[in-house]
Amino acid sequence: RAAAVVAAAFLLGALPWIAWNVFVPLGSFSDNFSVRPASGLHALAENLRYLVAYSLPELVSSVDSESGITPPSRVALLLRVPVLVIWVAAALFALSRALVALAKRLRERKADSPPELPLLLVAVTICALTVLSGAGQIRGLTVRYVLPAFFVLPAALALAVVAAARTVRAAAGLGAVAVCAVLTFNVYGYFLPGSAARRLWEKRMDADTALVSFLQAAEVEAALGEYWEAFPVNFLSHETVRVVPFERGADFYDVEGALPAGPLRWALVSSTQAELMRLAGMTGTSGDLVEVGQERWVFLPASGPEEARTFVKRFREAFFAAR
User: pTM value?
Assistant: First the structure.
């Protein structure tokens, strides 16, 4: 009966994933680094180091989730270390509690398994898969790879607070302070109305809209830009203006391959004026440089329409040569 419940729960939870692999035959398993093993012992060691040094701390106490795009609040900076210590203490408590219960079960066959064992196994499995697979070798904003492990931690914190309160009455107050610190840190992580981060993103939203309008008014048919500048335009314009990312591996929707044949009216988009000036100078291309909004710049080459193959090749080479 228990196995049937587990199987039904798995099928229900995995239904979107199963449906995707039916409609796109085994799409999750083709050209996917998450199903490839790590490339060697050195990669395993680096994956473990990155998990401990970046992924797990960023998962529970992030103050800069977008790597410099959004400035953190002062409250978040003040609480980051205490919150990280609280989560580490809660995780160690849950781990020690589970190990003690398992040791007792091995000694006494009739002893019960700890009720939190399934949650602990979820966290361990997620971390192990990240270390052992090729996904762990990807660097950047990869905290989402270990995201399911986060849902174990509130249970661990609750167990630790309750156990401490039952052992020492004064610890109940400390537990309450710990919970309040975590909640305060998490609340300040949201882009709340009126916050500096929210106002900045509102300006960026307006800038993206202005960028799309400018490109459409200029009758630009295709453009080049970094990943973070390219895809907002593709989505907001419904691909009436197609922006190809400089990073070939980030062209997940094959925007470059979907470009029409023949010469196209091109533009370059960037968050900085300096980058566009550098690319224009390196390729010897003249044209107009326009600021259209918050951190949104456009370069319109004066050379006229050009085929995608030659335009993309020239500026992509210049982009990576400047790095």
Answer: 0.69
